[in-house]
Structure formats: C-alpha cells, structure tokens
Write a structure and sequence with these properties.
Length: about 300
C-alpha cells in the first residue's frame, strides 16, 4: 500500500431538494478528485435533510436498497474518476427493517463493503431509534484499493470500543460520516462544550489507536418540521487528525467546504513504536468491559 494518501472531505449544507443535494455532491466530488483526492468521504445521510428530528412513517419512503440507485450513481462516479468514495445511506434491508449504512465504493465502481451503524441515539431532535435498526455486521474494516478502512457512523464516534475493535482488526484509518449540531436553546457556553467534546473524543481515538481519523459533518440550519424545537444548526468543523491527534485540516463551523488532506499512512507505524499502547494493554484484566455496568 502507498504511504501518502490524498483524502478529500466534503462538508455540505442540504435542503429538501434531494436531487439538488446529490448533484452538488457529485460536483464537489469532481472538484476534490480534480485536486488529486484518491479517497473521498461524505457526511452522514448526505442525500437528504437530516430527517430524524421527527418521527414520521412516510419518511421510510426515502430508504433504498443496497445495491440501489445511490450505489449505482456513486459507484459509476468512483469508476469514472478512479477514486474511493465513502457514502452514507438510508438502507431498506426488508419491509419494516431499515439501517443507517455507510457504503464504500472502490475505484472500479464496485461495492468494497458496508457498515451498519451500531450505536443508535434517541435524543430530542435525534430520534434515530424510530428509523434505524442497530447494525449487525460488527466492527469490520473494509478492504479497498487505498487501504483498510475502519468506517463507523456519527454516534459511534463517542464509543472507544468501536474504534479499538476496528484498530485491532487492522484498520489503517478511522472514518466517521456525521450529522451533529446545536439545538437552538443551547447557551453559547454549552455549544462550545459540546463541539469541543466532539473533537476531543475523536482525536482521542486517533491517539489511543495510533491511527488517522477522518470526521465529516454537515453544516447549516435545518428546521424542525414539527416546530417543537428551533431545529438543528449543524456545526460543520469537519476535520482530519493524524495518529497523535494532530489536526491536519479543519473546516469552518458556518459554511460549506471541500478540503484536501495529505495523510501519511506510515506515521501510524512510527507512532505505535514510540507509544506502544497495544503492547501494554492488560487484556487479562479487561473482562468487565463487556458488562453493561459493574454493580457492587
């Protein structure tokens, strides 16, 4: 595998016009590919508005099969441009059975693999348990022509266990398509705490596992169709961190951005030699980690 990997991230604001959202994504993919990106990562549920602010059965009509229209579209684009694309789709697995699924399209247009979101939130404005069945594919890296990708999705980014298992199975990168933002009534101080915690948590995954982390968030305000809240202001701030948690690139919080990062994959080996966390893990003492809680 090559040492340097030029990676493109696309931070986009979406509207209710799904066709326009998708066309702008295609244009943005072409832009970063023209700048040399070989791996291109999109945000969570990138074809539509973030529909989980309410619970509406009609929304299930947005779901699609895999393979399906989106994998065909982005697969053909990946083949045309000779790039690997990490997508994030609303998967219809069977009638009444849906997942939040990341699909990786390889340079030949084929589906290299997929990952079904494992951790599903259920918070005000993030009613994902209504729509998504928890993933049942485990934490399995996806082999591609640019490397072995540890793809997870959004809420997964708060859990060190998922990142660790991906790393233990040989992932060379950790990738998080994301949709996260502020609720309108949050104070300025609370907004800062939330965003900072989001960045710190993922940088910690990079440090603890000696791996680069790619996190791509959406941006812009999306109203709450029920008017129960003021909607979500997605905070953008997409970033790429190196294996010591160092920020390689970072997008703004208030505008769209197409960015390129040069990721040195050899650094993971170098960092793990000076910070040998895998060597020093006390696997004989961790059995309790598989329990829900360690009651007295």
């Amino acid at each position: 595998m090559k040492t340097m990997l030029k990676t493109g991230i696309i931070q986009q604001s979406n509207t209710a016009n799904n066709a326009d959202n998708t066309q702008r994504l295609v244009n943005n993919i072409r832009e970063v590919a023209a700048k040399g990106a070989e791996l291109i990562v999109l945000q969570e549920l990138h074809n539509s508005l973030y529909f989980c602010q309410t619970e509406e059965t009609d929304v299930f009509d947005l779901a699609e099969s895999i393979p399906g229209p989106s994998t065909d579209k982005f697969g053909n684009l990946a083949k045309e441009l000779g790039v690997v694309i990490v997508t994030s789709l609303f998967e219809k697995r069977a009638p009444g059975l849906y997942h939040n699924t990341a699909v990786v399209l390889d340079k030949d247009g084929s589906i290299a693999g997929k990952y079904r979101k494992m951790h599903i939130p259920d918070d005000p404005a993030y009613y994902e348990k209504f729509y998504f069945t928890p993933g049942d594919m485990g934490f399995e890296p996806i082999n591609t022509s640019v490397g072995r990708l540890g793809v997870l999705v959004c809420w997964d980014q708060w859990y060190p266990e998922g990142a660790r298992l991906m790393a233990m199975k040989g992932a060379e990168l950790l990738i998080y398509p994301t949709a996260i933002g502020w609720e309108s009534t949050d104070t300025t101080e609370e907004k800062a705490r939330q965003k900072d915690a989001w960045v710190v948590s993922q940088r910690a995954h990079a440090v603890a596992n000696g791996l680069p982390v790619i996190s791509v968030n959406r941006v812009g305000h999306e109203p709450d169709p029920s008017n129960a809240t003021g909607g979500i202001q997605f905070w953008g701030n997409s970033f790429v961190a190196g294996p010591q948690g160092e920020i390689l690139i970072e997008a703004p919080t208030d505008m769209e951005a197409n960015l390129i990062a040069d990721i040195d994959l050899k650094r993971s080996e170098d960092v793990r030699r000076i910070w040998p966390f895998f060597r020093d893990r006390r696997i004989d003492a961790y059995s309790g980690i598989t329990k829900r809680f360690l009651d007295e």
